Please model this.
Amino acid sequence: MTPEEIQAIFFVECEESLAAAEAGLAACRDGSHDDDTVNAVFRAVHSIKGGAGAFGFAALQSFTHTFESLLGEVREGLLPLSDGLTELMLRALDTLSDHVTAARDGGDAPDDHALLAELTAAQGGAGAAAPAAAAAAPAEAEPAPSEPAASESDPFDFDLDSMLDDITGEIGGDTPDEAGIGTWQLHIRPHSGAMRNGSEPLLMLRELAALGGECTACDLSQLPMLDALDPAQGYLGWTFDLPGTVDEAAAREIFDFIGDDCSLASGDAAIPATRIEAPRPAPA
Model:
């Protein structure tokens, strides 16, 4: 299966997730606020975010991350599901649909700055009425610059030191242990299929970093000499320290999209062993 075919499947799943989220939010608007309905909406948005990260759709991933954070507070009972909040999330779902369309068709992402400010202001129990003030001052919520798609840059034009710093999470500040939260470990080993099927493991490691994870080890023991290196193999493995406040299931869900093509272990286990596969024969 080609990367293009995998991506086409992702967009089909996006449409299914959007439909499921719309049905759930419509039920909430009509008075059905049960946990199963809210969980279904959360899972739908989370699924889109995971695929967006895997394929490098930065604008789509950024918007769904904020939307998912708000849904997470509703899901955990930290934020009451009022009529105003439900209407806000229905508007967010419309914009999410526009983001999916832009990513699929290669068009410009929708202008979501004001809506992102509303979604952010609604978190932490602020409710859905407060976002109007936040939207009036969009300069306070400047969006992070999006990264160029891989096809828009020279694949050989990169700074190796900066890339390694990014992977190892050397961003300064207190670690979770220093903040008194406590940590747990997740060990990751992408295999050859993770690259062959169009995935990008580096984007998934960045999602772990976004959860507060810090890379504390990188296994280089299986890395061959340069003349024997096959870029399609999974030579590297990583250990991430994650804050105790991060649920293990949430961290593992980041890698659901590539399934058995990435081995995971947690706790005191070691980084999973690599699986070196025989190279595929060149096409005739």
